[in-house]
Amino acid sequence: MWVAWTVPAVWLLLAVIDRVVKRKGRQRYRLFLERYGLSVSLGRIQFYTNRVNHLLVRFSDFFPRRWLQAWFTVGVVIGLVLIPLSVGVLVFTLRSFIVSSDEEARDPLLVPVLPGVNLPWSQLVYFLVTIAVSGVLHELGHAVAAVSENVHIDGVGLFFFVMYPGAFVDLHTQHVTTLNSIQKLRIFCAGVWHNVIIVFVCLLALYCLPWILFPLFTSTQGAVVNGISKNSPVYNNLVVGSVILSVDGQSVHSKADWMALLSKISQHGFCANKSSLKRMYTRAVSLSLSGVVECCQNESLSDFCFHSSEPLWDTKKRYFCLNARKFTAGLHCKQTSDCLGKSVCLHPSLDSESRLFRISHVGSKDVIFVGHPMLLHQTISLTDYRPRINLFAFYRLPGVTETFLLYLISMSSALAILNSVPVYYLDGQWIFSAAVDTFFKDWSEEIRTKLTSGILMIGTVLLVLNVILGLTAVLNVNT
Ligand SMILES: [Zn+2]
Description:
about 475 residues; alpha+beta; 6-stranded antiparallel sheet; 5-stranded antiparallel sheet; 19 strands; binds zinc ion
């Protein structure tokens, strides 16, 4: 939790340096900030420029005005539909947290992302890039919609707030106030609308990924290892690029199959020819600390202790130290009656959580795994895509693309929800008041103002409660 004190400390230091240098009248520092449109305050660094205004105008002029207005009118419909939906979702989350005693139903919807706490550092780049992309495309929506309504753009900015990047567009306020409420709605809903479009495009891209990657990757056979940690129990057996074909005799066609098989794997026995066991039983048995019977006295990694549920020949002959690779190639069984002829069913000597099974993969001997199956899940990452060309870095491309798309979906959905709830200081405030002006224009201005501020107050409290809920959930899990 070093982030909890490092981040405030860094910001405090920056703010103090900024103050001190400004007080001492360092003209060069002020000029530097002015020249690059930079401003520093506690917890926030901002960059502002008007140099890209003409580019935004040129970009907007590229499309016929009518098309743009039609596009953003669809955005208004979506933005208005999202208001009750996001309010409903926030109310529902809050309600289930208060009413339900079931832990699963109490999952908060808006979970603040805290790098180093609930966001692994290895995922930080995904988070920062996708939040920046979602923010910039959101603001681009406002900017283009504004240009299509002849509103002047004063400037655009990027900022870094505490640990989160963001963007904004500065519209000429006087121009905005002269617009009718539908025109205002087109501009205010444009950000949320663009976030919805991002979510839709990313979902489509995820669905079409096998076809998009088709020229470079095939996804028809097995699941491909694209990362394996050094502390994985199978680190010496599998490598990046290994294609896993089956787990415990069950085919693996995808990463999802692998996960499903690992989570439900149960321990079975293996059939062994009774007469071949006669010379192999062992008397020397001992109990491990976890209460598991051990009967292999040598330190060999290839032998493993198996036992029969009933004694064979006489009461003592039920433990056998056998070569695991050879023996587990036999038929699977639950009891001796499942085996053919004069065979018996032997089970590996394991604690209740551990399993012994084979993992088959392309081009090498099966891996014999003994341990908790979830250890494999935690230490191996897989992808469904196998490169057609054997280049090392290629293995990572599908995984990186998938993760990037998933992050973009969750960041853009969060921005869409946050900005459609009627809340002070966010898009929801402007969308809601313009919507009230549009649909209740016959009402007196006083009543409309009262209605708007009442709902905004409720919306703000609702959002704050949801964020507090998310924050407590994160801190509870991580402490
Ligand atoms: Zn916005």
